[in-house]
Automatic annotation (TrEMBL), chain A:
Residues 98-311 form the ABC transmembrane type-1 domain. It is a multi-pass membrane protein. It is found in: Cell membrane. Keywords: Cell membrane, Membrane, Transmembrane, Transmembrane helix, Transport. It comes from Micromonospora lutea. It holds the Pfam family BPD_transp_1. This is ABC transporter permease. Residues 1-28 are annotated as: Disordered. The chain crosses the membrane at residues 38-64, 102-123, 135-156, 183-207, 228-247, 295-319. Belongs to the binding-protein-dependent transport system permease family. It comes from the Bacteria.
TrEMBL record, chain B:
Gene3D superfamilies: Periplasmic binding protein-like II. It comes from Micromonospora lutea. It comes from the Bacteria. Pfam families: SBP_bac_8. This is Sugar ABC transporter substrate-binding protein.
Length: 327, 446
């Protein structure tokens, strides 16, 4: 940003074409601020280079090696595409984790968005105390990826958990949800869906932006509530839906904490919660195959990039920018 | 965001200056970034162990509970008292996540000088040259192993190198709930019962008490290992598996039969019991009559239940059990204080006062002379019990097997996965066995 605002020396020397005392003044100060700016920026730059960029490039390199964490980096062997080959041809647990992650994202993300939108619609009214409810519904998201929440979840959905006690009130015999390979992943999905606060807040903001005259016009034309929702709210909200969809999909694919806590870091029972990132973690840190784990991470990155690109390319067919003509 | 410059204002001649200026600014920015880097580096370096006052700080890392932490800290304090120039930086945590952390520390070039390790990982570390060969200290006498049982010492040797020194000795122990049995007038299990007898006994317990008689051991590698040795097989033979698909099938079928007869808990409860956490062992949570553990874990188990516990050998011929190094002390290969670290380890296993302090928390003391002293002195009931059982079993101990090979930690995880798959009834024992053996071959090949 600072680079593009670099003051023009010619202008300073000869006086600008448009005499604008203010601009020149700030220009001079900016010049002195340049260095200071970088100095202030440097912690971030160091962070970007040290914590993100360099490790990423290093992991790209490591993905072509047999790095095992314990061996010093200087002694790793270059093994070409062997890691990638193994992933696609001879690692059933990799394919399994891909399936688990896809089914998690395919089910949890749409339901989470639907829940977020539904509650946002309810809370978009001028009820008394609606602010309190907004806060309450947002609360689970504040607890985010917290370990404590995952532990609570495990205890709630145990055989002796609160959820089964609740079911027992209706005479329903519950299951050991978190310890049942057929239900453990579903339990995690419910946890993810329950944390719909962040997209909900964004939906709420989007709903506030929809001009009321559109609804008035629609109701003059005889459109009922449902027609208004389908023909006014959804198109006007589509940019926000798109934003939430992209963000939550990426989030969904990266789900780790809850699966890690629920399964004691194993992906169990019987690999039912072996999310991609958990599999990656186990491969790298428990099995000490960090080179292979790096390859997995890069495939993951590329896959998410492709999925996001697909969203963007389909976006033009259903995302409606009302101010499109202005730009 | 302000527009950068007015497009109308002096664009043509401005452009000629812009590039060099931009570059200079960029350079300056990078310079600033580079200048701050050493600051960060220095901040990190402050945590280094080289004391300027002639003192040396030895870092030491172990897993365990509060009790172990206290005892170990006391023993290390004792060392500092005798050697005022040496201080310690102790880090400890629960077993879960310990090896992840150890690996990360090692990768980060900041591993502890001394670390605790067990046979699940010893070869993983030794084969990758992360552990220092302690043989030279043994040869020089700095590390006195003359009072060690030879097989216990041998259990720390990987590829001819002494990768770890046994911090204690233990063996498999079947812990059962005594209170539950006496309350219901049931007989206690005894060492030497066959596996079938054990399961029949457990079935009785289930029927009479309503508490599942025994934890399903099919996913527990140490039980599988003992059973294999009783069949004349082993977990590993050289760099290969010591068993076949048929062996595993029979093992899984044994336990399928036990489940069908109601001798074990339901699969989800077995799954809970398969966690390594002591506090989750079914015998202390009251969800089963027995748990398959190590004898030295008795005192720790006892702390988690009000019931009285008993401990015997695993079913079958007890000579299949061996004097296992419950855990080792190892020194990181790149440690700058290796000589001192070796002296500290020597102190922890051979100094009478230190060994007395540590008791049997890490297993029976490796030093046989001191083991006698500790067992005579102890007043802790659970500790007495575990010492008595181990001493009794020691008379029949068979030869120690080879230390598990590289990939063993993965093999253990695969056993749990395959056994649970059968427990939940998703596959037959034969299918689970085939799945397990295939996964094992992949795990030890890489």
């Amino acid at each position: 940003m600072a680079l593009t605002t670099a003051p023009d020396p010619t202008r300073r020397g000869t006086g600008s074409v448009r005499p604008d005392a203010n601009r020149r003044g700030t220009g001079r100060i900016r010049h002195g601020e340049g260095l200071a700016g970088y100095v202030f920026l440097s912690p971030w730059l160091v962070g970007l280079m040290g914590i993100t960029a360099i490790p990423m490039l290093l992991s790209l390199y490591l993905s072509f090696t047999n790095y095992d964490i314990l061996t010093p980096l200087s002694e790793v062997e270059w093994i070409g595409l062997a890691n990638y080959e193994r992933m696609f041809t001879s690692d059933p647990s990799w394919w399994h984790s891909v399936r688990v992650t896809l089914s998690f994202a395919l089910i949890a993300v749409p339901l989470k968005l639907a829940a977020a939108l539904g509650v946002a619609l309810l809370l978009n009214r001028a009820w008394r105390g609606v602010g309190l409810f907004r806060g309450l519904f947002y609360l689970p998201s504040l607890l985010g990826g917290s370990v404590a929440l995952a532990i609570v979840w495990v205890n709630m959905f145990n055989r002796e958990g609160a959820f089964n006690s609740f079911l027992a009130l209706f005479g329903i015999q519950g299951k050991p949800w978190v310890n049942d390979p057929d239900w453990a992943l579903e339990t995690l999905m419910v946890l993810a869906i329950w944390q719909f606060g962040a997209p909900m807040v964004i939906f709420l903001a989007g709903l506030k932006q929809v001009p009321t005259e559109l609804y008035e016009a629609a109701s003059v034309d005889g459109a009922g509530r449902f027609r208004q929702f389908v023909n006014v709210t959804l198109p006007m909200l589509s940019p926000v839906i798109f934003f939430n969809l992209v963000l939550e999909t990426i989030n969904g694919f990266q789900g780790f904490t809850a699966a890690f806590v629920l399964s004691n870091g194993t992906g169990g029972p019987v690999d039912s919660t072996l999310m991609y990132t958990l599999n990656l973690y186990i491969t790298g840190f428990t099995d000490l195959e960090m080179g292979y784990a790096s390859a997995m991470a890069w495939v993951f990155l590329i896959a998410i990039a492709i999925i996001t690109a697909i969203f963007f390319s389909t976006g033009r067919f259903w995302v409606h920018y009302s101010d499109g003509e202005d730009r | 965001m302000h527009p950068a410059t007015h497009p109308t204002a002096s664009a043509p001649d401005g452009r000629t200056y812009r590039t060099p200026l931009l570059r200079r600014r960029l350079l300056r920015g990078m310079l600033a970034a580079v200048l701050t880097l050493p600051l960060v580096g220095m901040a990190a370096a402050c945590g280094d162990d080289a004391g300027s006052d002639g003192k040396t700080k030895i870092s030491i890392f172990w897993w365990g509970g509060d009790a172990r932490a206290q005892l170990t800290a006391q023993a290390l304090d004792l060392y500092t008292k005798k050697n005022p120039d040496v201080t310690f930086e102790t880090v400890w945590q629960a077993n879960q996540g310990y090896f992840d952390k150890l690996a990360t520390l090692t990768a980060g070039g900041n591993p502890p000088d001394i670390f605790q390790i067990d046979d699940n990982y010893l070869t993983e570390y030794a084969a990758r040259n992360a552990t220092l060969d302690l043989k030279k200290y043994q040869d020089s006498g700095d590390l006195d192993t003359s009072k060690f049982p030879p097989s216990l010492l041998q259990y720390g040797v990987v590829d001819g190198k002494l990768a770890g020194l046994a911090a204690g000795e233990n063996t498999q122990g079947l812990v059962y709930n005594k209170t539950l049995l006496t309350k219901n007038g049931l007989p206690e299990p005894t060492t030497g019962m066959s596996w079938e007898e054990h399961i029949a006994w457990a079935e009785q317990v289930s029927k009479k008490t309503g508490v599942p008689g025994t934890m399903d051991a099919s996913a527990i590698d140490k039980a599988f290992w003992v059973w294999l040795r009783q069949q004349g097989k082993d977990l590993y033979s050289g760099n290969d598996l010591g068993f076949t698909v048929e062996d595993v099938t029979r093992w899984f079928e044994l336990w399928k039969d036990a489940r069908d007869r109601g001798a074990t808990p339901t699969p989800d409860v077995i799954h809970e019991g398969n966690a390594t956490d002591i506090t989750k062992q079914l015998v202390v949570t009251g969800k089963a009559g027995t748990s398959w553990v190590w004898v030295n874990q008795m005192p720790e188990l006892k702390k988690n239940t009000a019931d009285e516990l008993g401990v015997i050998a695993y079913p079958g011929d007890p000579s299949a059990q061996w004097a296992r190094a419950s855990m080792y002390w190892s020194i990181f290969r790149g440690s700058k204080n290796a000589d001192l670290a070796a002296d500290v380890i020597n102190f922890l296993v051979n100094d009478p006062e230190a060994v007395k302090l540590l008791g049997t928390d890490r297993g029976l003391p490796s030093n046989l002379d001191l083991r006698r002293v500790v067992s005579d002195d102890t007043t802790d009931e659970a500790m007495k019990q575990s010492i008595a059982v181990e001493t009794e079993l020691a008379e029949t101990f068979g030869d120690a097997p080879q230390v598990p090979i590289k990939g063993h930690s993965k093999v253990r995880a695969e056993l749990i996965k395959a056994a649970e798959n059968a427990q939940y009834g998703r596959v037959t024992p034969a299918e689970a066995a085939a799945q397990f053996v295939e996964a094992c071959k992949a795990a030890i090949a890489s």
